[in-house]
Design brief:
This protein has 3 helices and no strands. It has 87 residues and is mainly α. It is extended, with a radius of gyration of 20 Å.
Length: 87
């Protein structure tokens, strides 16, 4: 947690204690946010009407990193954080 550096010790303690007192309201893992409506947590990028589509070329990942990326994608799919787009 990053907090401002001009708090007195009492304020700093209050800020650091707050998340611990409200653990049930915080998501600690991807699985914790299951059931939240995608309309609340969905990220959208609004672009101008005349904006042109641009796609970067793919980069190659080493096999270890590729495996980690695939595992993370499968987790996100399993927890409905991302959705497959067919087309």
């Amino acid at each position: 947690m990053i907090i401002v550096n001009d708090l007195n010790p009492g304020q700093e303690t209050q800020v650091l204690d707050l998340p611990m007192e409200n653990q049930e309201a915080l998501g600690w893992t991807i699985g914790d946010i299951r059931g939240i409506s995608p309309t609340i947590v969905q990220h959208r990028i609004h672009v101008e009407d005349n904006a042109k589509f641009y796609e970067d070329r793919q980069i190659r990942l080493n096999s270890t990193l590729q495996e980690m990326v695939n595992e993370q994608i499968l987790k996100w799919l399993d927890h409905d954080i991302i959705h497959r787009i067919f087309g």
